[in-house]
Amino acid sequence: MGGSGFHPFGGSLNPDDPYLSYHDIRLTKEDVDTLKDDWLTDNVIAFWEEYLEREHLAPYRGARIVLLRPSMSFMLIQTPNPLTLRDALPNFSKTTHIFLPINDCRNPSIAEGGSHWSLLVVSIVDGVAFHYDSLHPSNKDEAVTTTKKLGTLLGKELQFLDLTDSPQQENSSDCGVFVCVEMKHLLLKKLLSTHNKEQINMSMGGKQIDAPHGRKEILRVIEGYRKEGERRRSLVIHGLRDPKHPECSLTDPLQAIFESA
Length: 261
Hints:
Blueprint: E1 18-22, E2 25-28, H1 29-37, H2 42-57, E3 65-67, H3 70-78, E4 97-103, E5 117-123, E6 128-132, H4 140-154, E7 159-162, H5 175-191, H6 211-237, H7 253-259
Parallel strand pairs: 3-4, 6-7
Antiparallel strand pairs: 1-2, 4-5, 5-6
Helix pairs in contact: 1-6, 2-5, 6-7
């Protein structure tokens, strides 16, 4: 299939085969398969963050919200001196809020390690870190450590709030889905829908999370981009330009679809 890393629909894919390229995110067949009923991989959560940033956060040009990728959150918790990460992490000098997926993996040598995800949302403007754990209090220690290290990096003391009224999962595999659903809700329904001077209630108490629906929503987004990539690839094969994006040469359909968005 050339350098696009894209396979035709109906083709047989191995777990490590590329399934979708979306900007900086490369999803494999194994990543996508976890959306059926398994523990979500770092890549799936990173994809969801990339999608939220580009499709929902980008229109709010005045927003200063950072969705930190799982790998960066893990690097933060594993690094003894967080000040050494200044060049590796985004510049938070003008940031108001940071979303951090928290993983309970203790061994940095194990790829895709750990057994539980939770969500930490840091309001820099308020000096508060809100922790949402769907198997409370499983990731409390990791979230507290991350909060302290982020505070050191920011040069600001952060108050840690473990929100015990957060929605709770009913099995052992939905934690990553809860993180994705909560992330979207807190971003769109709380932070981006509130005027600057209004006080925001960051509690998720009373909200019901439909994990199967959440899995289907993420998969629907992935499949939508995949089908669009296949459509553009077909145009390339036939030497046609995309009428929706005539400025694109379409030499790499996946690059064209996402860089022109």
